[in-house]
TrEMBL record:
Keywords: Hydrolase, Zinc. Residues 200-300 form the Peptidase M20 dimerisation domain. This is M20 family metallopeptidase. It comes from the Bacteria.
């Protein structure tokens, strides 16, 4: 039997509730910012996870904490995956909505004491206040409002909080991708752009290592018997950097060059670490093919080049499905007096991993913030009520597609 339809609250109806939550939001934000939770500080990350788990449990979510082995010899904090079933089935038009935030920051232990949470007018400051504690808390606040108003016209809400997004999610990536595969929509809780825009696309990254093999020789007695891998690497750097501009929105950067051990030996080996950023998977593939072509023609006789992919983070592409999500967000925003655009960015995040599973994603749904990763990081707390109301409205809109 199909569940009876109820009147869906408008974004304007959520706004007074979000304003009522503002004092508690500021209190909670100060508490979260006071916790050092750098990516390499698992105890601090888990302290944030404890806090988030308590909050979600009180909101009726079942919470799973997944201990991770860590990566590169580093211990990691836990991943938190929380779920709450709605009153609709998927067959009835209910949808699974995944909300994603991260608990780690880029800052070292002790930063919270050195730069404690502070307010200058409506601007909040402190490590991680925008990236991503302000967005994470906005998501929790929106879920509180949905619970308090009995809005449950969805199949399931899933809240994902990761411990290592700031270092590329090496430990949590598998959990994020597994969690995303059953979702119909993904909502990223990174903060909005400084001008208020949401994020509809993020570039993907391919990391490549080019290993140049030459031939050693005595540099003073018989250099002609050598094949200089360092010289071949220099030719490669020039050729690879020259690929920039061939494709719109694609960047190629030779970031690291390693070559040789002694000045009196013709260099027999060199390595180049290259980063490619592109807006589409097709562009990443095209660039990798072009790099293979360059590598096949080393500029020094007697040298060879091996190309290996060391990293791949899929792009969050600007798709038709994402545009439909953005249209729903913009419609709710208009009711709230918010006017924003759809931004594309070169920065990557967990939204990329979600999009890589084929799930449409809209990101930047936290409050407005900026200067991330710097001592000047800020969050405009005056934007919190409208952004929380927007998020709550978007969840209700996407969660129920009966008759859509």
């Amino acid at each position: 039997m199909t569940a009876p339809a109820r009147q869906r609250p408008s974004a304007a109806e959520f706004l007074p509730l979000a304003r009522t939550c503002q004092p508690q939001y500021l209190k909670d934000l100060a508490e979260l910012v006071a916790i050092d939770s750098g990516s390499y500080s698992p105890d601090g990350v888990n302290q944030v996870a404890d806090w988030v788990q308590g909050r979600l449990t009180r909101t009726g979510f079942s919470v799973e904490r997944i201990r991770l082995p860590g990566a590169h010899g580093q211990r990691s904090g836990d991943v938190l995956v929380a779920r709450k079933r709605g009153r609709l089935t998927v067959a009835e038009g209910g949808r699974r909505i995944l909300l994603a935030a991260h608990m780690d920051t880029v800052f070292e232990d002790g930063t919270a004491a050195e730069r404690p949470f502070s307010m200058t007018g409506a601007l909040a400051h402190g490590p991680g206040v925008s990236d991503d504690k302000g967005g994470l808390l906005a998501g929790l606040t929106a879920l509180d409002i949905l619970t308090s108003t009995g809005c449950d016209a969805y199949a399931e809400l899933v809240f994902l909080a990761t411990p290592d997004e700031e270092i590329g999610s090496p430990a949590s990536r598998r959990v994020t991708e597994q969690t995303a595969r059953d979702a119909h929509y993904g909502l990223g809780l990174e903060c909005a752009r400084e001008n208020g825009d949401l994020v509809i696309a993020r570039k993907g990254i391919a990391g490549l290592r080019l290993t140049v093999t030459g031939r050693a020789a005595h540099a003073g007695i018989e250099p002609e018997r050598g094949a200089n891998a360092a010289l071949a690497a220099a030719h490669l750097v020039i050729a690879l950097q020259a690929l920039n501009g061939r494709w719109d929105g694609v960047t190629i950067n030779v970031g690291v060059v390693r070559a040789g051990t002694r000045g009196n030996i013709v260099c027999p080996r060199a390595e180049l670490d290259v980063e490619v950023r592109a807006a589409t998977a097709d562009d990443i593939r095209r660039v990798e093919e072009a790099i293979q072509e360059v590598a096949a023609r080393p500029g020094v006789p007697g040298t060879t080049v091996l190309v290996e992919q060391t990293e791949l983070c899929p792009p969050m592409e600007d798709t038709l499905a994402a545009r439909r999500m953005f249209a729903a967000a913009r419609a709710a925003g208009e009711v709230l007096g918010l006017h924003f655009g759809a931004a594309s960015t070169g920065g990557v995040g967990d939204a990329n991993l979600i999009a890589g599973t084929g799930v449409p994603v809209l990101d930047g749904l936290g409050p407005v913030g900026g200067a991330d990763h710097t001592p000047e990081e800020w969050l405009d707390t005056a934007t919190v009520p409208e952004r929380v109301a927007l998020l709550a409205s978007l969840i209700t809109s996407l969660g129920d597609e009966r008759g859509a």
